[in-house]
Amino acid sequence: xxxxxxxxxxxxxxxxxxxxxxxxxxxxxxxxxxxxxxxxxxxxxxxxxxxxxxxxxxxxxxxxxxxxxxxxxxxxxxxxxxxxxxxxxxxxxxxxxxxxxxxxxxxxxxxxx
Length: 113
Hints:
This protein is mostly helical. 42% of the residues lie in helices and 4% in strands. A two-stranded antiparallel ribbon has the order 1-2. Residues 56-113 form the DM2 domain.
C-alpha cells in the first residue's frame, strides 16, 4: 500500500501551520478561490445624503442671562460659545504668560501689574 505524502501548509500560505485534518478543506478552498472567479457583487443603491440634524456641538441652544450679556446674543451653539470666549480671552490678554492654558481674571491681572 502506497502512502501519500502531503506536506503541511506553511505559514506563507495560511499564516500558520495547519493540522492534517484541516489540510483538505483548506486546499479545496484555495483551489476554488484561485481557479474560479465569482461574478462581481452588485453594489447597493446609493442613498441620498442625510441633512444635518443640528445636534451636538453645532446645535443652537438658549444660554443663561449672564452669558447672554457677555456674548451679546440669546442663542449660541457650544462651539460658537467657546470660540467667542477664547476670542475675548486673547483680545484682553487674560492667558498666563508662563502657561498659556491658564486663564487669569482681570482683577488678578491688574493686581499683578
